Amino acid sequence: MYDCIIVGAGIAGAVAARKLAEEKGKRVLVLERRAHIGGNCYDERDAYGILIHNYGPHIFHTAMEDVFAYLSRFTGWYLFGHEVVAKIGDELLPIPFNLNTLHMVYGQEKADELERKLIAAYGEGSRVPIMKLKENEDADIREIAEYVYENVFLRYTMKQWGQKPEEISPEVTGRVPVLISRDNRYFQEKYQGVPKDGFTSMFARMLDHENITVRCGADCREVLRFSGNAVFYDGKEFEGKVIYTGALDELFDCRFGRLPYRSLDFRFEHYDRPSYQGHSVVNYTVSEDFTRITEFKFLTGQQDADGTTIVKEYPFAYTGADGEIPYYAILNDDNQALYERYRALAAEIPNFYLLGRLAEYKYYNIDAMVKKAMELAERL
Ligand code: FAD
Ligand code: UDP
Asked: Which of 67, 106, 115, 118 has its CA 20 to 30 A from that of 248?
């Protein structure tokens, strides 16, 4: 009945499903164990009518024209330059740390001098990872680096990862470099924003195709079985392609041990007043047990709500207990080696493909995921 089975209705699964169904004429079955489509991008209106992101704030951002064009087939956009501030003492400072932040911290005269030094060292417009800035030989630049390390990265990273910045992959803190510019935006890509009527509507339109069947509340492990080098669906050998976007260790019953992940506890609060913090995202980089507070109406531009809903994010180590969700792969050599053992098992099955943040054990943004899904569908 089906030519392809896709496990997971997140962005990776949804894009792959649409491409295979529409452009290759494949009959695609999508199995999703949650009660809804959209994966971690899922959004919905809460009890107060406010559009919330159930799995944390998601801002689409990309410089890839083909990715933007593809998604734009399924949604219009509310585009903006996403800005984040950090609450440090009584002040709200622009993040990433940039030349505006520098002036707020050091005052005009000293900041002008430091700005000249930074521009001479790195060039205007450059992006310098904090761990690189810390290595600079100039004492004044190292003083800035120390300030940024202590006030922006250390506590936040300890909360998010349970480790210091120097103990985690440099790729992670490198996502939020020090900017030698006056750009207060969190991302620098050309397109940034959210789907005009929400992510879930975009997913619904993408999956709405005569060749696509979506089954929510369906854990693939109930219907898919692996034996030898073959996949069995409902007890019969399945010779079509199977794309898997879930966690790879789980699929193989964690036989080599669990792959480590960080998880998050999202705590939503509603306030019966127009605004809570007046900003879409405030990072708590030196205080509190949560990492950040998102106020959704400032992220989505929602105008028709009197009250306001926020979410606080409390990180913790994923244990695999019921109800926990693995959000972030923890990138290091040991974990990569463990992942490779699972990947070798998957590689023995010729019609089985791994795609997505979990299945590939990578730190992908939405746009990178769309691109990879488009490429895989092309290749198949
Ligand atoms: P997912 O969205 O996780 O989808 C995988 C799906 O597979 C899930 O729905 C899951 O239920 C399903 N599944 C798993 N196992 C099974 C099974 N056994 N049977 C059936 N179904 C199964 N990216 C950005 O670009 N911008 C942002 O602002 C941003 N913010 C983020 C904030 C947070 C808190 C997090 C955690 C991530 C954020 N990301 C952001 C990253 C973004 O969420 C991911 O890049 C994207 O969602 C990955 O898509 P995916 O399809 O690989 O995975
Ligand atoms: N980070 C930090 N302070 C900040 C913002 C980011 O220490 O104010 C570090 C932290 O280690 C975080 C990483 O940079 O995990 C990447 O940040 P990003 O905002 O990209 O994380 P995500 O939104 O993916 O959770």
From this structure: 67
pTM: 0.97
pLDDT, tens only, 255-272: 999 999 999 999 999 999
Find the angle CA(79)-CA(80)-CA(85) to the nearest 5 degrees.
145
Q: Is 59 in the pocket of ligand 1 (CB under 6 A)?
A: yes
Please indicate, yes or no, whether residues 207 and 334 belong to a single structural domain of this protein: yes
Domain of 249, in residue numbers: 4-77+193-258+329-379
CA angle 197, 202, 206 (to 5 degrees): 155
- Alpha helices by DSSP H, listed for 257-332, are 296-300
Q: Which atom of ligand 2 is nearest to the CA of 95?
A: 8
Q: Rounded to the nearest whole angstrom, what is the distance from the C-alpha of residue 162 to the centroid of ligand 2?
A: 13
DSSP one-letter code for 82: -
Q: What is the residue type of 306?
A: D
pLDDT digits (tens, 9 = 90+) for 96-134: 999 999 999 999 999 999 999 999 999 999 999 999 999
In three-state form (DSSP H/G/I as H, E/B as E, the rest C), the secondary structure along 96-137 is CCCHHHHHHHHCHHHHHHHHHHHHHHHCCCCEECHHHHCCCC
